[in-house]
Write a structure and sequence with these properties.
The protein is of the alpha+beta class. It is built from two helices and two strands, in the order αββα.
Length: 89
């Protein structure tokens, strides 16, 4: 990535998805997750993150984990843009 350029849409989507999946797998072993879907779009500067998680609620509430994953995705994208801005100064 060019130091003066903003991250590409693909970089934004990949960063968000990786962060969301990281949160999910920090709470659950991959074998425990029955189903999950992390949908990330970034169009016209608007980030949309949707996380669906079907996992046992023995140790953690799947809905709360999905919400945490979506927030982590947004935070990771904020960090990505902040790093781009600070490297371009």
């Amino acid at each position: 990535m060019n130091a003066d350029a903003e991250p590409s849409d693909d970089e934004v989507v990949e960063t968000a998805a990786d962060a969301a999946e990281g949160v999910i797998f920090a709470h659950y072993k991959q074998s425990e997750v029955r189903d999950m879907d992390v949908t990330v779009t970034f169009e016209d500067g608007v980030l949309d993150v949707d996380v669906y998680l079907n996992a046992p609620d023995d140790d953690a509430d799947p809905e709360a984990v999905a919400d945490e994953a979506a927030l982590a995705a947004r935070d990771a994208v904020d960090d990505l843009f902040a790093a781009t801005e600070s490297s371009g100064e």
